[in-house]
Specification:
The protein is an alpha+beta fold. The chain has five domains: 125 residues, Beta-Lactamase (2-Layer Sandwich), CATH 3.30.450.20; 108 residues, PAS domain (Beta-Lactamase, 2-Layer Sandwich); 110 residues, Beta-Lactamase (2-Layer Sandwich), CATH 3.30.450; 185 residues, no CATH class; 171 residues, Histidine kinase-like ATPase, C-terminal domain (Heat Shock Protein 90, 2-Layer Sandwich). 42% of the residues lie in helices and 25% in strands. The protein is built from 20 helices and 22 strands. The strands form five sheets. It has a five-stranded antiparallel β-sheet. A five-stranded antiparallel β-sheet has the order 7-6-10-9-8. Helix 14 packs across helix 15 and helix 15 runs antiparallel to helix 18. It is elongated, with a radius of gyration of 37 Å.
Length: 727
Amino acid sequence: MAVKNKVDLKQRLYEVAEKNPPYDLPIAVYLVTKDGEFVDCNPRAREILKLPPTGKEIKANIKDFFCDPYERIRLLKELEEAEAEGRFLEKKVVRFKVNGEKIWVQDYCRSVKDPETGEIIGYTGCLVDVTEEESSRQLFEKLPIGIYTLDTENRIVRVNKASADMLGYNHPSEVEGTPIENHYADKEKAEEFENLIKEKGSVVNEIVELVKKTNEYCYFSVCSYKKTDTDGTYIGREGTIMDVTEEENYRQLRDSIPVGTYMVRKDTNGNEIIQQCNKTFANMFESEIEELKGKEVNELYVSEKEYKDFVKEITEKHRRNEIMGRIPVRVKTSKGRILTLEVHCRLLTDKSGRIMGRAGIVLDISNEVALHELRDDIGRVLHFYSATLVNLEQSIKPIISALAPDPFTSGEVLTIDKAIEALTEPTKNLKNILSKMIEFTKVEPGRRSAIPEEKWAILKNHKQLLEEYETQILYPEFQVATLHEVSRIILDVHGKIEKGKLPRELTRDLYNKAKELERICCLIRTHQTLDTIIEVDYTIRALREFVFFQQRQPGPGSIFKITKLIQNAIYQLYLFARHRRVAIKQDHESCKARVKVEERSVLRALSNLLYNAFKYSWHRRIEEKTWVNVRAFAVRDKVHVEFQSFGVPITKEEIEKELIFNFGYRGKYSGDRMRLGTGIGLSDARDTARKYGGDVKITSRPASGEDETNYKQPFITTATFILPIYA
């Protein structure tokens, strides 16, 4: 029949369409009974659910496709509530398992009722495969990097949970809808950043300063690109943010310290290339940082010969285990000016000892006035660090007490070997209980519904990691951090276990074992932090005192009892001695000698010698504390103060050639058990004593009295500080 007009066309279209069921549409359509058995579904639905092709009977139940059987119960309940209110239930995203593969679908469904009784006899609906979209959404929500989207007006359209957390908010909704400039520390910078994006199109790792909900200022590394419509008009931007506050603070500190810092690495051809430097270093060479990066080091020296002589000298010092400090070199700036720099550096080596480069600091000693100002600035920086370390130490000790019982009570600095040894048993226990739980669900598979399948996969993977961490994580230093993270993840999974689904004993044991591993890991990392702080604390305070002392003109001196000066030195190091479990055997109270000295300089010298005695001491017997002898006595017109320790040896050559008194020199065995130091203490102590007509003497002999060349045994080392007696 020919269609003559619009009315006929509409009528004809309706007649034809009425005969075509929705099953012919290119969207998945299904019809199931009230119990979920398939009655029919179109080709697209069969394709998504991997069902038999059209024309064949479907022997399947839609309930079997749900990953979580309770999810269908909740879905039908929501549908019932929606239909009672006259609403449709649409865009419900559910997890399906099809032939062992997990997919995500959006379900638009409604009930089918008997027209006579009104009873629900089945359900019909449409399915849309949104696996790709849902994966992207979950990535957006769970990625530990902040993601954001802005509109044309630079208002925040969308952020993920990580972005909200970084800015101190509880939920993305607190941030969404707000102008981006509200989150800038300087609102003018928001406009500058927008103009930068519009101009360049995108930026990578741009540093911006934002303000958190708590009004705390922080730095973020931003990667962003602009969005445009079809005619190129700006319609907003998207990107990522990462909190780099700590790194940026260190960078600013590095760039603000009035000392040139640098790092040199060798390229594949063996040429030394500047890898990193700070602003002060670049200013010395009248260049920018980026201009110096990648530049060959030999180009900075006045001549090739002077460069080679310097490399030869530091290589020799490295071979002799000497500090590479106070080495003068002549360099030329980009403008051709000649400078004399004082270099302090250390070589960077690989595991085999091959030299890969070096790192260090340089001082411009071309102008002595500038050098004095520089020392004064360094003193202020060291004062800041010293105060910070003291506060950190006092904050950490209560944490260790709260984590008791503490297996690390020997008083020795906590080595990585001891840490790994303490982790062995808790790691084994946690692995065993995980194995037991996984085996239990194999025997009773119905219990697996206690947690989603992806959580079981996490437990299985981490059980394997606990079994193989020693071989999978090659560097022991990283094993502690990894096991700590494993314990936290397992505790998180434990919190998701549905009550009553698994035996209480199993879940309780899992929690206890994971908690114990977490506790030991926390203790190890806290001890390591405290050890470092206590090791560094006195070193920095002594260095600060040394720097300040260089700025002062020595005074006329005052009269002191030598016992008072000794007692003050002991008092200064009381916390360090207690941390080291070092007892102090004192035999100086009976000495009545008086000295006329500047108190601060002599106190610093005595403290340095006592600090060395504490630091380089070993245990004499397992059941007995380490102890150090401190005694004072008069010999004719001089008073002798002895500090005697039992432990790290000093070689005969180092004493006879007086190498140990060289400024910056650290003894051949001073690095025993990763002990820190500056190499300044002995040099400064002797200079101080000689200024008053005294001296410092060092002796070191085997504790056994045998074989003076066997430096693997403990030595008795005595440092004697000698001053004239004031009559």
